[in-house]
Structure formats: C-alpha cells, structure tokens
C-alpha cells in the first residue's frame, strides 16, 4: 500500500532566488512568485507547510503592464472615516515613493488569505532598485521550474548512486 508523502520541517531546505522584474508583466510575474513562495515547483510540496523558497525581486519600479492598465487599474482603500475613500491608479503607485507595493499587492492576492499566507509573504523581499541587502544568503537567479526539477532529479540520482 502506498502512502502519501508529507514533508517534515527538518526536510525543508528553502533556497533564495532573485528575480529581475524589469520589463516583465505584473500579473504573470506575480503568479510565478506565488508558486515559488508556496513551493508548488518542488516535488516535496506539502499543502499545510511553508515549503517554498525565499524570493528577492529587484527593479520592481520598472515592471510592465498590458492593455493600458497603468491608468485603468485602480487600488481602493478606505480610512474607516466617513468619506475616507482613497483611490490610486497603478501609474500613481509606480511613480510614488513605494513602487514595490504594486507587486506586493498582486502577489498577496495570489497566496492564501490566512496565517500560512502571512508566513509566505514574509519570505518575499521586493526592492525598487537593482540592489538588495541579501547577498549573505547567496541567492541564485530564477531560471524556471523545469531547471529546478532537472537539478532535483540529478541530486536524487547521485544520492542513490552513493549508497
């Protein structure tokens, strides 16, 4: 009888990935980041644990959007006071003091809205410029899920060959 694999906390070894957002489309990049944070690109994915990786995004102020969404996409918030509706277009957010908030908002909408989602969002580091303070973690550039699967399979074959 086969049993369903469930990773333990000791089995999880998160990596750090850096993604350059310059010229990439906002929604498509956000869905890739949400997948990395969740850990669905790994064969050791476990739904109830934060088994994903850390993601560093640089050049978030140079992100691209499609079909004129710079002026059409509106971010809505309310101050909880009467008449306290605050509206901001995507253009205003990207030209404002914190352009990285547009990407954070997009990724937040794609992860779970519970405590596990909060844990995953703490693993996301977004910077407007080309530099970041996480060199000590030795981040590697994100090459896509297929490259990771090939790397994982080669590690497994070399580990089984040593035994």
UniProtKB/TrEMBL annotation:
The entry's keywords: Ribonucleoprotein, Ribosomal protein
GO cellular component term of the entry, any: cytosolic large ribosomal subunit
GO biological process, one term: negative regulation of translation
InterPro entries in UniProt: Ribosomal_uL13 (IPR005822), Ribosomal_uL13_bac-type (IPR005823), Ribosomal_uL13_sf (IPR036899)
Keyword Ribosomal protein: yes
SUPFAM superfamilies per record: Ribosomal protein L13
Gene Ontology MF terms in the entry: mRNA binding; structural constituent of ribosome
Alphabetical list of Pfam families matching this protein: Ribosomal_L13 (PF00572)
Assembly with partners or alone: Part of the 50S ribosomal subunit.
NCBIfam families found in the cross-reference section: rplM_bact (TIGR01066)
Similarity comment: family membership: Belongs to the universal ribosomal protein uL13 family.
Function: This protein is one of the early assembly proteins of the 50S ribosomal subunit, although it is not seen to bind rRNA by itself. It is important during the early stages of 50S assembly.
Protein name (record): Large ribosomal subunit protein uL13
């Amino acid at each position: 009888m086969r049993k369903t694999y469930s990773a333990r906390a000791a089995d999880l070894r998160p990596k750090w990935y850096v993604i350059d957002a310059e010229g990439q489309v906002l929604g498509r990049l956000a869905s890739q980041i949400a997948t990395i944070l969740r850990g669905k690109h790994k064969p050791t994915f476990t739904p109830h644990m934060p088994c994903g990786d850390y993601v560093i995004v640089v050049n978030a102020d140079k992100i691209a959007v499609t079909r004129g969404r710079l002026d059409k996409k509106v971010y809505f918030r309310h101050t909880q006071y009467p008449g306290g509706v605050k509206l901001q277009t995507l253009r205003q957010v990207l030209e404002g003091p914190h352009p990285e908030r547009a990407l954070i908002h997009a990724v937040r909408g794609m992860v779970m809205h519970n405590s596990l989602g909060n844990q995953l969002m703490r693993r996301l580091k977004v910077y407007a410029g080309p530099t970041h303070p996480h060199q000590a973690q030795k981040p590697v550039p994100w090459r896509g899920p297929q490259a990771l699967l090939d790397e994982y399979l080669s590690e497994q074959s070399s580990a089984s060959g040593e035994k």
